[in-house]
Amino acid sequence: MWQELGIAFCLMLVLEGVLPFLYPRRWRAAVLGLADLTDRHLRLMGLSSMLLGTGLLYLLH
């Protein structure tokens, strides 16, 4: 199980690095835009991301 978690973590790092590598200006603008959001909006985005990820894992498993 620990090996799979390590693999998942590595893949997450690769996927998160793609946008800053390909589009650094757009990525910076997006991050600055996120800094202006309220805590409520950030929490809703986090919840949506977790639910989407959980749903996709369920469908793929």
UniProtKB/TrEMBL annotation:
Q: Where are the transmembrane segments?
A: 6-23, 44-60
InterPro entries, alphabetically? DUF2065 (IPR019201)
**Record keywords:** Membrane, Transmembrane, Transmembrane helix
Which Pfam families does the protein's record reference?
Answer: DUF2065 (PF09838)
Name the record gives this protein: DUF2065 family protein
Organism equals Metapseudomonas boanensis
